[in-house]
Each structure stands twice: as structure tokens, then as C-alpha cells.
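Quick sanity check, Acyl-CoA dehydrogenase:
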Amino acid sequence: MRFRYDPEIEAFREEVRQFIREHLPPEEERLRRGFEGGFRSPEEEKAYVMGFQRKLAERGWLAMAWPKEYGGGGASHMKQLVYNEEMAYAQAPVGNMGIAWVGPSLMLYGTEEQKRTFIPRIAQAQDWWCTLYSEPGAGSDLAALQTRAVRDGDDYVINGQKIWTSGGHLADWGWLAARTDPDAPKHKGITMFMVNMKSPGITVRPLINMANRHGFNEVFFEDVRVPATQVVGEVNRGWYHMAVALDFERSGIQAFAGGRRSVERLVALAKERPELVRRRPSIRHELADRAVEVNVGTFLAYRVATMQARGLVPNTEASASKLFGSEMSQRIALTGMHLLGMAGQLRDGSPYMVIDQATGYLQAVSATIAAGTSEIQRGIIATRGLGLPRG
Ligand SMILES: Cc1cc2nc3c(=O)[nH]c(=O)nc-3n(C[C@H](O)[C@H](O)[C@H](O)COP(=O)(O)OP(=O)(O)OC[C@H]3O[C@@H](n4cnc5c(N)ncnc54)[C@H](O)[C@@H]3O)c2cc1C
């Protein structure tokens, strides 16, 4: 089956490609400098990401999914899909938790004052936001979180520990879930807060992942005072607000568009260096399998987007897309290692390195854990999609 978009959408796609050519450093330079996590300092990373996102904001694209009344672009689902597809294909730094769920949550539950103060800043990429949900004893079972928030006059006082906080070391603001009623059933005593990450009592400690990259952190709260005006939504109803915010997270095209580019790079390498294929002839089939998977996954993501465009709420479909996309990205990374053989293990500027496949391979491990593990996605598909009984 051949999919074709309206000419207007195709013209927009060309506009996005042109923007990327003008504003992102060439791909070769980005790969050489290890832009997918190999910055010389956190400041350099923040300046690169925020600089690009501010250019997107000037163009009215950063918040293109938001309604116009909040400074967004009010773009159709198809336009967003094409935008996301092109940005992910170019592996552009567009990830922004403020845009993805803080802003949309404020639109639903925020006070007028919160909307006026925070939404324009988010839409203009003025602040870097991190998400403070997971704890050492609360990941998949997020409602088990123990970080406490106790009312004291006009403030809440926060104590506890968060973990795996992506970009916590770069963040200006944190989107925090904390327990406000320890006696209520676990889903009913949680409240959402916006926390200034420079507040006294917050300690951010780096966690270096197995690829030797600093992406996530541990965040400790010791008597951190947060004004009660920074509670979002109703006190003790945070779980329900969070569940809506998590739904903003799962769309899916990014894994497939980024995966398509990775497969193309591997195919180009196989053509450039036929000795790699002679050494392992089965690599042809492997590369073909990956190319087919990228297409299958793209259709899964189109399905999610077209459901949204028709006003439906994809649930098991979004889980299937997340599951397939994250496992596929690991298979692509493994195929790259098979193609390169022993040389695939060389990284971080080794003079004999062909491409830095090892970093991509190690980074891919977390794909099936972040944003809900594969087991959790399979559970959703089994119970909500297939109607199987809960175990
Ligand atoms: C790269 C990355 C970035 C992240 N960024 C953030 C962030 O910015 N902010 C944040 O708050 N968190 C973040 N996380 C944390 C992430 O949300 C959790 O790691 C994830 O939800 C899993 O929780 P856990 O690590 O506690 O594992 P657990 O929940 O302890 O799971 C351990 C194992 O048990 C399995 N398991 C658990 N429950 C079930 C079940 N009901 N049925 C079947 N199997 C089950 C899991 O699938 C897994 O294999 C990030 C994680 C990664 C890897």
C-alpha cells in the first residue's frame, strides 16, 4: 500500500527539511562530535539543545501541537506527524518535557496565574524541565512513591529521593509527584508540584550509564520549601493528573523515523565496505529484516496518529508501537555491531573506529525500560487489547 499526503502537508515537510538543513550542523559533524550525548560539558549540551529549540519557537513550531490560545500552532495531527518524523529522521534535539506534558497539564489543571507565568516561558524554550516521578522503590509501580510533601504555612516541605531523572542536572524546573496523604490508599494521596531546581535543599547527583554518558541523575530533597501556589491541580488527585500527562508521552513515530536513518547509514556502510559483507554474508538478510521492521513500525505509528486525528484515544495501539519501536531500535543497534564485527567495539575517538556503533548499542539497552518497560506494555496489550484476565 502506498500512502500519500495532501500537497499542503508535503510542502510543509519540505519546509521542515529546509529548516533542518539551515539550523542543524551537518550530520557528519554531529556524529563525529558525538552529539547524541558526547558534549564536552552540560553547559554546551544545554546551549545546543535550547539554541535549536528557540529557533523552532521563533518559527512557531516548538509548541505546534498546542492550541493557539496558549501560544501554540494549533497544527493538525498529520502536520505534527510529519514534523516529528522529519525531526526524528534528522535526529534533531527536540525532546522537551515542558512542551510534551507540563504545558498540556497546566492547560487542563493549572490556575490562571500558573498558566500566565509558565506557559509562555515553556512555549519559548526559556526553561529546561525535568520529570521527577521514579524513586528507588517506585518505577513501574509508580503509585508506591514515598517522597513526602507536608503543608507548612504557605509552603509545602519536600523530603525524599527521586532517581533516573533525565536532564535533572540541566533543569531549571522540575515536574514532581509527591505524597501528601500517607494514610490514603496509594493512588489517592499523591499531588503534583512545580519545583524550582535551584531551591535550597535540592542535591542532584549524576548517574553515569553503561555507555559512559551522563543523561540521568539521582535527585535528593531535604526540607525543600515549595510555595503552595506551585501545586498543580487538586491536592491528592495527582495520580489522575499524572495518568493523563503520561498519555501525552506515547506517540511512536520518533523510534521508526530515527531507526530508518540508522538502517540507511548501515546499508551505506555495507556498500562502501564490501569486505564487511563478505565476512558475514548473512548480514544482507539482517539488514533487510531491519528495513522491513522500520516500515512495519512506521505503519503502526501512522495508525496511532490517524486514530488521534479521528478523535479516538489510542491505548493498546500506542503500547504496541512503543513496544515494537524500542525492541526494534535494539535490534538495529545489534545489526550494526554484527556488520562491524570486532571493530564495532571501538569508540570515543579511537583512530581505528569505523563508526561509533558501540555507544549506540549500549544506549539502546535503556529503550525497553524508559517510559514504561516492555513487560508493562505487554501487560496493557494483553489485558486492555486482548481482554485477557489479569494475573
Ligand atoms: C533512559 C531512561 C530515562 C528515564 N528518565 C526518567 C525521568 O526523566 N523521570 C523519571 O521519573 N523516571 C525516568 N526513568 C525511569 C523509568 O520510568 C523507570 O525505569 C521505569 O518505569 C521502570 O521502573 P524501574 O526502573 O523501577 O523498574 P521496576 O519497575 O522495578 O521493574 C523491574 C523489572 O520488573 C518488571 N516488572 C515490574 N512490574 C511488572 C509487572 N506488573 N508485570 C510484569 N513485569 C513487571 C519490569 O518490566 C522490569 O523488567 C527513566 C529510565 C530510563 C531507562
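Posting the structure with no commentary besides this: The two ends are 39 Å apart (CA to CA).
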